[in-house]
Specification:
This protein is of the alpha/beta class. The chain contains 10 helices and 10 strands. It has a domain at 6-145 and 229-298: Alpha/Beta hydrolase fold, catalytic domain (Rossmann fold, 3-Layer(aba) Sandwich), CATH 3.40.50. Strands 1-2-4-3-5-6-9-10 form an 8-stranded mixed beta sheet, sandwiched between helices. It has a two-stranded antiparallel sheet with strand order 7-8. The longest helix is centred in the middle third of the chain and has 22 residues, at 155-176.
Length: 301
């Protein structure tokens, strides 16, 4: 094995859409079978953001990492574009796990998943739906339902207003195929997906990378605000680690999930805000230490 890293593109199908991903590994060929981790980031993001950041760290520790764009985002196919549709993303994770399991350089039975922020709740649902994932890691996981999400959007009145705008956008799409979009991030814009100050999405040195399209299909409010990211826990028995902090979203949900999951659960409680865990050295280092310890026991054994 060499100490240099290599990366190359892959494509696979999910419900008729061609998804584009990248394999990251430290190896001089494609023969050595390694424990492998699929990695995805927050809602409305692409692989070049949180996912590739964690891939680089885990590859340096001897894992193969696979990052990919969900249908409708980044380099992947799929229509409508920029549509945050949980059911589609869950299906994409199932497809990605089945694809990864078919690769000859992936150690059989040693496929893990790292979900950063919102994709953690989608991964949990995908595992419950039968995705061949042997071990799960959540980093600053966002697990919500309508009641817990409402305070982010001005309470239930804010939710109702967004659902109305989402319904109007869906009607436009059904009418003539128009995809009504709003900014994914714009401070002070109540119609944006994220409308409060977040340096991660404003800073080109962090998350505002060229590959990221700062748009959200406004119809996304319908599935996003009514999604239940907690209920799948009752059907999940794979070993799980939650990397979280008091400064991350929904810290009480981590403990609630811990009691509902059917398999062994570890919690690594650190310090920092939600977006610190996306890319900041101290928080990423803390998370990777916990993930490596977890996957060493569950994928390398």
């Amino acid at each position: 094995m060499t100490t240099g890293s290599t990366t190359f593109p892959v494509v696979f199908e999910s419900n008729g859409a061609l998804l584009t991903g990248r394999v990251h590994r430290v190896a001089d060929d494609l023969v050595e079978r390694q424990p492998t981790v699929l990695i995805t980031g927050s809602w409305l993001t692409v692989k070049e953001q949180m996912a590739d950041r964690y891939a680089a760290e885990l590859v340096a520790r001897g894992y193969t990492a696979i990052t990919f764009d969900f249908a409708g985002f980044g380099e992947s196919g799929g229509e409508p574009r920029q549509f945050e549709l949980p059911s589609r993303k869950i299906a994409d994770i199932v497809a990605a796990a089945r694809f990864a399991s078919s690769l000859s350089f992936v150690r059989p039975g040693a496929l893990g998943y790292v979900g950063v922020c919102a994709s953690a709740q989608y991964a949990l649902a995908a595992i419950a739906a039968g995705a061949p994932i042997a071990s799960f890691g959540s980093v600053a996981g966002w697990f919500h339902d309508t009641e817990s999400a409402a305070p982010f959007y001005g309470g239930l009145d804010g939710v109702r207003g967004r659902l109305e705008r989402g319904a109007a956008a869906l009607e436009a799409f059904h009418g003539d195929g128009t995809v009504v979009t709003v900014p994914a991030y714009e401070p002070g814009n109540d119609r944006a997906g994220m409308f409060f100050e977040m340096d991660y999405y404003a800073n080109p040195a962090r998350g505002a990378v060229p590959a990221w399209r700062n748009e959200m299909a406004e119809a996304s409010w319908l599935p996003w605000l009514t999604f239940d990211g907690l209920s799948a826990a009752d059907a999940v028995s794979v070993p799980t680690v939650f990397v979280h902090s008091d400064g991350c979203v929904f810290p009480s949900h981590v403990e609630a999930l811990r009691s509902r999951l059917r398999g062994p659960v570890e919690i690594a409680w650190g310090e920092g805000t939600q977006t610190d865990f996306y890319d900041q050295p101290a928080q990423v280092s803390f998370a990777v230490e916990a993930l490596d310890a977890h996957f060493t026991k569950t994928l390398r054994a």
